[in-house]
Structures are given as structure tokens and as C-alpha cells.
């Protein structure tokens, strides 16, 4: 699917290239005093061979850029949570290759532009102005500094483009909120693209002038020595202030930048438009070889992420607009009478939703535990040099109580719904005197349980140095001495006795962490930006939004269109999943920072819709529930749901939520 | 005539309505609660239109001078003055004053339009993202109406052209009118018929659209020409009290959600003596053939002109017409009948369709 789309996008961007080149030639020969000569010169230039060659060359450049677009795209944005992650992202080798190649491409484009501009930019080496010194008959080759300036500015723009691409998450493919034909979408974005390119090129040229002022002599000297050119002493060298204040140089460099950015942005925009176009997946395969492409199969297997996104988008559209395909979803299979299509689709949507529920619950637990573990850490920080000291005796008792609280704060509702899905032994919940050390050990064996956020599990620690949880580790060590008698009293646990070396090493680790956490610089790099970490949790929420909409539209349509009653049997499960998720989301939004909206910049080319996905999820969840309650009305009271859920459904029926 | 009521809108699912007053405040009246929240915001000036979000408890979108305000109210709260923090501001440069709003019936998208902006904005309210739908020719948008089945949108412009957009791929059909701009329009409940009127003419036009089957992507499917279904030019009625001249241009028109009653405000000729503004009620039917029969007239107290009319979206016993008069009174007029479309829940009702018992009961009136 994606292959053909990429080819089409590349073909269109190459086709638009001559148009841009023509515009560039016309504008670079800008001569307001002799308009007729200007226009005629430009038209003559279109047909010269070097322009054709340049166009061909630029097509190759666009091809390379498009290949990079395809390699780097992502439907789920990767959001760096801390500054260290951001720096890591920048110096990652994949990103380094991206930047280097873009810089080289930029230089090539600038060379093409310089060649097409003619005049003083055309060649790297020009004959020097004849000097007055007698006896100097042979004219020597001098370095054309303007040309060099152009090439280096091209390289700098390529590199800056790559950097901006990374910082603004431009590899993220946002799916549009309304469906439109591709041409309309392209036409709508074009003015914004042109304006954005002009402004950005201005910034790049300004930055490059500053850099060239300070460091321009390095490449100059290097080129002169390697190519045996001389520096023309008659002309002003460009890395001085007077040299750089040349208006025509500035204009041409800016124009070259605009040309480069426009062509690259057009390639990127066309790729985005083509990739996010809706694809029609058949629900019921008509031929045997198409079975792999039909919607239920794709949803249940693990296809590349973009195919899954496109499939979910198609599900959302078919549930709203297509009665024929809805009938196929509600149909029964021929010999057996099983609703395979509906089962597959609903199972996938429900698993997506429950997965999100668990993720949010884990996050909440971690956040709640962090808030509680801070208290004992406060008093322990006073004496970091005496780990495992006797002073920590009274801490274990407190920490035991603090461990109970987060567990009890989980509502019975969420517990009961997640219980059947978990294989965690019930003994963890029961015993109020279990020491946190034991819990930590058991966690190593039972890493799938999302509940034990009160003491960080090993994988949580692996995620990133969470310095604020160091206190609970210390208390674990402190309670080590006390835990021995409790160990023997433990029933049915397979906990291993913590070895002394292990705890001593852990101790040292915590000491170092504590020490470093006092250093502001380290905290600056390691601290997790709360807004970014919240966005990271919801980064693939677009899938869940579509699953919600598709599912609720299908259920609402089934009230009148479902002939065999296939939806009714799954209705309790659907309502359960939706109500549970709604509760969890509501509780999540009470955490700090979650409900504050990030500031929005309107009219920018960069798409930041991934920052507000959580609000869209909350709104579409509510709308999905209201859709079901509005259509079914009082009949919902006949559906088998738990008592708590019944109460909430009643609230929805009365429009009190 | 100056009226204290600027805009009026019913909640689509419950007995709750919002009224925008001349002092730029909005009051929300609920039949099941005694508190009347009053909404004020510093950006809420020159309120032109309001719309409740469908499939939601209480989210109200307000079209203001410079932006669109979306109030997120708590349906169970008893406070009479919700804070300005509940309001979300949706603004876009160049899109002001906003005069018409329409929510998609499926509840996700909000359309906002302004007469000076040639682009309609489609908002995704929760992410505050908007998409501009631009067209050329005709100026901005003066009137927006979304069909109840969610498939089409009517957008009337200040010039003699109106557009009908289809809501799946957002392509539009252009309809030039004969004399003036499209004054008002309303859709049948299944989205297959559009009734509209033109400024300067005293007729009601009807435009039919092909049945929406979902397979025609990108086609609006309108028929070639519009046909005239009602002539409302001035006629003289002989009544007990003397001669009554009724007829003229149409000011606004609403169709009740069951598709059985159509209410039209007819403004009499301003020069003619003793001409008055009345509300004409028609009995309508959309299937199998379209039928429009006059039913009666509604008139208020002496000197009161009807300004705004709206039907209750879910009145179970027929239709409920709400009229806002120029004196500041709001009256609710019920029409009791058994609708042919809605399945009757209780079989004990008499199946004879009863015509209007036109009573005037000043409920929720205010000055």
C-alpha cells in the first residue's frame, strides 16, 4: 500500500520541480529597471542546457530526500521526556546520517542555484582582476568567494532543515480531522508553505552570516591550498562586516534558501498527503487470495503501524458512512453461522482500550507512589552516609503503611475488572505486613503486574534514573534487617533472601544518585519534563480514538441494522470497557499538569496535534458513551453490567455526566 | 425593533435551553433544576448564535465578535455563575465576527462561519485544530444549517449564491438564485429535502437530494432545479374582527424534528397599513411524496413581534414550538399529534392524529 503512494508522491514532487525552477530563474534575474529585458532573458534561460541539467540533478536530490522521508516517518511521535533524551536523539547515529546527507544535498542544490543565477556566482574559480604589478603577465585563478559562500550556505541550510525536522517531530504523520481530496489539501497548504519557507530562509541566512563571519576563513584557506587558487586581494573578503553587508549577496542567498526549502517542503507535504489518505480495506474477502488484506485479519495480526492506523481509520469511516459495509460486519459466516467479522473487530478494539486502561493505571500508580515515597526520603537524605543504619528502623513501619495506601486507593471497580486479566497471586493483596523488600523481590519474578508501582520495579528503573524514588530503595535496605523474621512467617511466597553484596551495591548506587541529585546541572539534564512525559503516554492515542468512534458508531447502527443480534452478546463487555476507561481517564486527568492545555500557534506549517491527543481521547470517549446511551435509551437497563456501572449508565442516560 | 433576546437554542436531548441577552450574558434554563446559571466572559461580546453540542451533557458553543467560546458546564453543579475558566476560546486570525455555528450531528466537528471570511472553519474542538474550507466567489457565510442525518451542510452567502456541502469529502455544489441571497433554510429529518427562501421573494423553494447511501463519495447529489412549494404573498382574510392582511417575505423558518410541522415567520409589507408579522404553521410530510398544507397562524400579544422560533428537539407528544417575542417574552406552544414515523411506545393512545390545540402558555417567561 505504502509503496505505490510513495512513488506517486515522488513523481508529483518531481513534476512540480520545473515550475519551482522557472520561478527561481525569473526571480533571481530580478531587474526592476529593465522589466522587458528581464523577462526575455529569463525565458531564454529556460531552454539552455545547463538549466535542464540542473533540473535533472535536482530531481535526483528530491529522490534522495524522499527516500529519507520514507525511512524516517512515524505515525507515533517519539517525544523526548528529558533533556538528556533530547540530546541523545540529536546525536544518534541515524540522525547524524540524516543531517550529513541533508547537508550534502543542500550543497548540491546551492551549486545548482549558483549555476543558474549566473553573474558573479557561477564559478568557483575566476580569473583575478589584473594587478598593477608589472611583469605579471599570466592571469592567475582566484577564488570566487561568492560561490563558496553559496555552497556553504546551502550546506548549512540542509543541516538546519534536518535539525528542525528532528526538533519539531516533522517525521510525524498527522491524520487529518476531515477527509478531503488530495488536490484540495495540497492547494490549501501551499500558501502557508511558501510563507513559512520565506521566513525560515531569512532566519537561516541570518544565522549563516554570523557563522561565516567568525569561521569563514577556515574553508577559504582550505580550498585555496587544495585547489591552488589565490585570494583576490582587490576584492573585499567576505568574512568581514563590509563584505557581508552586500544586499545582492543577501538577496541571492535568501532566494536560494527559499528555493531549497520550497522544493523540500513540497516533497514532504506530498508524502504526508499521500501516506495519510484513506485506504479502502474490504471487510468480506470476495476472492481467496484477498483474505490477508481484509479488515478483520489486518486488525488482529500485527501489521506495520501505519497499516494498522489506516485500517482503524477505515473502520471509523465505514461505521459512519457505509451501510453496505456495516452489513458485512454484522453478517454471519456461511456454514457455521458465526459472526467472525464482528468478533474480530470488536475483540481488537476492546483489547486496544484495555491496553490503554492498564497503561494509565500503571502511570497513576507510579505517580501516586512517587508522591508518597517522597516523605521518608526527606528524612533519610539527612544522613546519606550511613546506609542501613539503625536510624532507619522506624521507617519500615511507615513505609509499610504507605504501601497499603496506594493499593487501597484503587477503586474496587478497576480491581474487579482487571482481576481476571491478571495472574498475580492474591496473597500480595492480602497481607498488610508484607515488607517492601519482599515485594521488590517478587516483582522480579512477576514483571507483568502493573500494580506494584509503590516500589519501582526493575524495568521502571531501567526506563530512566528516577531520582525521586531513591528514598524508597533506601528504606528497602533499611528494612532489610527487620525483614528476616517476617520472611520466615511468609506463606506461599517464593522470595529469595536478598544477598548482602547485592544490597550493599544497591546502597552505593543510591548514595551516588542522592549525591548527584543535589547537583543542579545533572538534574537539569535528567529531570523529566512533566508535559512531555504526559504526551508520551498518549502518543498513539489516535488509534484508540478511532477504535472508540468506530465501535460506538457500529453499536449505534446495530440498533436498527443488526439482523442477527451479533452485537447484543458483546454489549456488556463493550460497556464495561468503555466505562472503566472513562473512570481511569477521569482520574488521570486529576493529576497535575495533565489538564493544562499546551499553547497553540495557529498558522504554522509544523503540526503539533500530537500534543493535545489526550483531550481528543477524553472527548471522543464521552461522545462514544453518549452515542450508545442515546440510541438505546431505556433499553440499556436490560444489559448485564455490574452495579457500579449501572449507576454510571444511569447518569449518562440522564445527561448528568 | 430592539429585542432583549439575541439568540435562543434548545439542548438536543434534554429540556434545557440557553438564551443570549442584549447585555452579552447567557442564561441556561433547565426544567429539572431551579438554578439558572448565567455565563459571562470578557470575550463574549455581540453574541450572534449559540449551539449545544450533540451527544453531550452540557457543552455550549457561542459565536462572539472575535472568537468562538465553548463553555464546558457541569450539568450537576448548582452555581449560578460558572467561572470564565470553563470557557475554551477558539480563535482564528481574520475570522471575526463569527455569526453562525453548526455542530455535526455525530458530535465531533464544529463549523463556524463569518460573513467577512470566505473560508468556513471546521474545528475539532478538543484539540483546537481547524481546517479552512475555502471557496471563491460570493463572500462569507451568513447562514449555516447542518442536515440532521449529518450528510450535508447548507451555507448561504450574502450574494445571490448558496452552497450545499457534503460532509464526507467536503465538496460543494453551487446554487445561484434568481433575485437575492438565501435568507434561511431548513432540512428534512432524513436530509433528502431542503426548504429555503430567498430575500425579496415570498415563496418557499424546495430542493431534493438523492438518497444518501454512502457509496457516492464526493457527490452532493442535488437535483437540477428547485421547485416552488408555497406561495406566501399577501392575501386578505376575512375574520370576525375585520380584514386581516397576512403575507409577505419570510424572515425565518424551522422544521420540527419529526418532519411534521413547519413554522415560518412571515413579515408583512412594512408600507402597507395594518400589516403584521405572524407565524404560519404548515403540516408537512416528506415520504412518499412531499406535502405542505397550511395549518394555522400564531400571533402574540398586541405589539409583540415574533423574533426567533425554534422547535424542541425531542418532544415526545408531537412538537413544541418556542417563540421569542420582541417584548422579551418566551412562549412555548405545544402541538399534540401522533407522529407517523416515531414508533408509539404506549399503545393506549388514540391513533387519530389530532391537529393543533394551539394554546399559549407563558412558561419560563422573562423580561
TrEMBL record, chain A:
Gene Ontology terms: biological process: mRNA transport; nuclear pore organization; protein transport
Main location: nucleus
Cellular compartment(s): Nucleus membrane; Nucleus, Nuclear pore complex
Signal peptide: none
Family (UniProt): Belongs to the NDC1 family.
Function: Component of the nuclear pore complex (NPC), which plays a key role in de novo assembly and insertion of NPC in the nuclear envelope. Required for NPC and nuclear envelope assembly, possibly by forming a link between the nuclear envelope membrane and soluble nucleoporins, thereby anchoring the NPC in the membrane.
Name of the protein in its database record: Nucleoporin NDC1
Organism name: Cuculus canorus
Automatic annotation (TrEMBL), chain B:
GO biological process, one term: nucleocytoplasmic transport
Name of the molecule in the record: Aladin
GO-annotated cellular components: nuclear pore
InterPro entries named in the record: Aladin, Beta-prop_Aladin, WD40/YVTN_repeat-like_dom_sf, WD40_repeat_dom_sf, WD40_rpt
Source taxonomy: Eukaryota, Metazoa, Chordata, Craniata, Vertebrata
Signal sequence coordinates: none
Entries under PANTHER family matching the protein: ALADIN, ALADIN/ADRACALIN/AAAS
Residue stretches making up the Aladin seven-bladed propeller domain: 2-335
Amino acid at each position: 500500500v505504502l509503496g505505490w503512494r510513495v512513488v506517486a508522491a515522488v513523481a508529483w514532487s518531481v513534476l512540480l520541480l520545473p515550475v519551482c525552477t522557472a520561478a527561481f530563474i525569473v526571480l533571481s534575474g530580478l531587474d526592476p529597471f529593465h522589466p522587458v529585458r528581464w523577462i526575455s532573458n529569463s525565458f531564454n534561460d529556460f531552454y539552455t542546457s545547463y538549466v535542464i541539467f540542473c533540473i535533472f540533478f535536482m530531481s535526483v536530490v528530491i529522490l534522495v530526500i524522499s527516500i529519507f522521508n520514507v525511512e524516517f516517518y512515524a505515525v507515533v511521535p517519539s517525544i523526548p521526556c528529558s533533556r538528556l533524551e533530547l540530546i541523545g536523539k540529536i546525536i544518534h547515529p541515524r540522525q547524524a546520517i540524516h543531517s550529513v546527507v541533508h547537508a550534502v544535498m543542500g550543497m548540491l542544490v546551492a551549486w545548482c542555484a549558483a549555476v543558474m543565477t549566473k553573474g558573479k556566482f557561477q564559478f568557483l574559480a575566476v580569473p583575478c582582476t589584473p594587478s598593477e604589478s608589472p611583469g605579471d603577465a599570466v592571469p592567475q585563478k582566484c577564488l570566487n568567494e561568492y560561490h563558496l559562500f553559496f555552497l556553504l550556505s546551502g550546506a548549512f541550510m540542509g543541516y538546519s532543515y534536518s535539525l528542525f525536522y528532528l526538533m519539531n517531530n516533522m517525521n510525524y504523520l498527522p491524520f487529518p480531522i476531515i477527509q478531503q481530496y488530495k488536490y484540495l489539501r495540497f492547494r490549501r497548504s501551499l500558501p502557508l508553505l511558501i510563507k513559512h519557507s520565506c521566513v525560515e530562509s531569512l532566519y537561516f541566512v541570518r544565522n549563516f552570516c554570523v557563522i561565516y563571519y567568525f569561521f569563514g576563513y577556515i574553508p577559504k584557506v582550505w580550498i585555496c591550498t587544495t585547489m591552488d587558487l589565490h585570494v583576490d586581494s582587490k576584492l573585499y573578503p567576505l568574512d568581514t562586516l563590509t563584505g557581508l553587508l552586500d544586499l545582492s549577496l543577501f538577496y541571492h542567498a535568501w532566494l536560494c534558501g527559499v528555493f531549497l526549502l520550497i522544493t523540500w517542503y513540497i516533497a514532504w507535504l506530498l508524502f504526508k498527503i499521500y501516506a495519510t489518505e484513506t485506504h479502502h480495506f474490504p471487510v468480506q474477502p470476495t476472492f481467496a487470495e484477498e483474505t490477508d488484506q481484509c479488515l478483520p485479519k489486518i486488525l488482529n495480526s500485527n501489521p506495520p503501524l501505519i497499516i494498522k492506523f489506516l485500517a482503524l481509520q477505515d473502520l471509523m469511516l465505514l461505521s459512519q458512512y457505509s451501510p453496505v459495509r456495516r452489513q458485512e460486519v454484522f453478517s454471519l459466516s456461511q456454514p457455521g453461522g458465526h459472526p467472525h467479522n464482528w468478533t474480530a473487530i470488536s475483540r481488537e478494539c476492546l483489547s486496544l482500550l484495555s491496553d490503554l486502561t492498564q497503561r494509565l493505571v500503571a502511570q497513576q500508580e507510579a505517580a501516586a507512589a512517587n508522591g508518597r515515597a517522597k516523605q521518608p526520603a526527606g528524612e533519610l537524605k539527612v544522613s546519606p552516609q550511613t546506609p542501613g543504619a539503625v536510624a532507619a528502623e522506624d521507617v519500615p513501619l511507615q513505609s509499610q503503611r504507605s504501601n497499603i495506601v496506594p493499593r487501597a486507593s484503587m477503586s474496587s471497580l478497576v480491581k474487579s475488572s482487571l482481576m481476571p486479566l491478571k495472574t498475580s497471586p492474591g496473597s500480595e493483596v492480602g497481607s498488610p505486613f508484607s515488607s517492601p523488600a519482599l515485594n521488590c523481590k517478587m516483582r522480579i519474578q512477576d514483571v507483568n503486574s502493573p500494580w506494584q508501582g509503590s516500589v519501582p520495579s526493575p524495568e521502571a528503573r531501567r526506563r530512566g534514573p528516577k531520582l525521586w524514588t531513591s528514598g524508597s530503595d533506601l528504606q528497602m535496605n533499611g528494612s532489610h534487617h527487620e525483614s528476616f523474621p517476617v520472611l520466615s512467617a511468609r506463606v506461599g511466597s517464593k522470595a529469595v533472601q536478598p544477598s548482602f553484596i547485592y544490597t550493599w551495591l544497591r546502597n552505593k548506587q543510591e548514595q551516588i544518585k542522592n549525591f548527584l541529585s543535589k547537583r543542579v546541572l545533572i538534574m537539569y539534564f535528567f529531570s523529566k519534563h512533566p508535559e512531555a512525559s504526559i504526551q508520551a503516554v498518549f502518543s498513539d492515542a489516535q488509534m484508540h480514538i478511532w477504535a472508540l468512534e468506530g465501535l460506538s458508531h457500529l453499536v449505534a447502527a446495530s440498533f436498527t441494522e443488526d439482523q442477527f443480534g451479533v452485537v447484543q452478546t458483546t454489549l456488556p463487555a463493550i460497556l464495561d470497557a468503555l466505562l472503566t476507561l472513562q473512570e481511569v481517564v477521569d482520574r488521570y486527568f486529576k493529576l497535575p499538569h495533565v489538564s493544562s492545555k499546551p499553547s497553540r500557534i495557529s498558522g504554522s506549517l509544523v503540526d503539533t496535534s500530537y500534543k493535545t491527543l489526550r483531550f481528543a481521547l477524553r472527548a471522543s470517549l464521552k461522545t462514544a458513551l453518549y452515542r450508545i446511551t442515546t440510541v438505546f435509551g431505556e433499553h440499556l437497563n436490560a444489559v448485564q453490567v455490574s452495579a457500579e456501572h449501572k449507576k454510571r449508565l444511569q447518569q449518562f442516560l440522564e445527561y448528568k455526566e | 425593533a430592539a429585542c432583549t433576546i439575541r439568540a435562543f437554542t434548545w439542548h438536543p436531548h434534554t429540556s434545557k435551553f440557553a438564551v443570549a441577552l442584549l447585555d452579552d450574558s447567557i442564561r441556561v434554563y433547565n426544567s429539572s433544576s431551579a438554578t439558572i446559571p448565567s455565563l459571562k466572559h470578557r470575550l463574549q461580546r455581540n453574541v450572534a448564535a449559540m449551539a449545544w453540542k450533540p451527544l453531550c451533557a452540557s457543552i455550549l458553543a457561542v459565536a462572539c465578535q472575535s472568537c468562538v467560546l465553548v463553555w464546558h458546564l457541569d450539568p450537576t453543579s448548582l452555581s449560578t455563575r460558572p467561572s470564565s475558566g470553563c470557557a475554551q476560546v477558539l480563535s482564528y486570525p481574520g475570522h471575526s465576527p463569527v455569526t453562525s455555528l453548526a455542530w455535526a450531528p455525530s458530535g465531533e466537528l464544529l463549523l463556524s462561519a463569518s460573513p467577512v471570511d470566505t473560508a468556513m472553519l471546521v474545528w475539532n474542538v478538543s484539540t483546537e485544530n481547524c481546517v479552512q474550507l475555502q471557496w471563491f466567489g460570493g463572500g462569507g457565510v451568513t447562514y449555516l444549517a447542518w442536515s440532521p442525518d449529518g450528510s450535508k451542510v447548507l451555507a448561504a452567502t450574502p450574494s445571490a449564491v448558496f452552497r450545499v456541502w457534503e460532509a464526507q469529502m467536503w465538496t460543494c455544489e453551487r446554487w445561484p438564485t434568481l433575485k437575492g441571497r438565501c435568507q434561511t433554510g431548513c432540512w428534512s429529518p432524513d436530509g433528502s429535502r431542503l426548504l429555503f427562501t430567498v430575500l425579496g421573494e415570498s415563496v418557499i423553494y424546495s430542493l431534493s437530494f438523492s438518497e444518501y447511501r454512502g457509496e457516492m463519495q464526493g457527490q452532493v447529489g442535488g437535483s437540477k432545479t428547485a421547485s416552488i412549494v408555497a406561495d406566501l404573498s399577501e392575501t386578505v382574510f376575512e375574520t370576525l374582527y375585520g380584514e386581516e392582511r397576512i403575507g409577505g417575505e419570510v424572515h425565518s423558518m424551522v422544521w420540527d424534528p419529526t418532519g411534521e410541522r413547519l413554522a415560518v415567520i412571515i413579515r408583512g409589507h412594512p408600507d402597507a397599513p395594518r400589516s403584521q408579522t405572524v407565524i404560519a404553521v404548515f403540516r408537512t410530510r416528506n415520504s412518499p411524496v412531499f406535502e405542505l398544507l397550511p395549518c394555522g397562524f400564531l400571533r402574540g400579544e398586541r405589539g409583540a413581534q415574533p423574533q426567533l422560533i425554534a422547535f424542541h428537539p425531542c418532544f415526545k407528544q408531537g412538537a413544541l414550538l418556542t417563540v421569542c417575542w420582541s417584548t422579551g417574552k418566551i412562549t412555548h406552544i405545544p402541538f399534540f399529534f401522533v407522529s407517523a414515523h416515531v414508533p408509539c411506545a404506549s399503545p393506549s393512545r388514540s391513533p387519530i392524529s389530532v391537529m393543533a390545540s394551539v394554546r399559549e402558555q407563558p412558561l419560563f417567561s422573562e423580561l
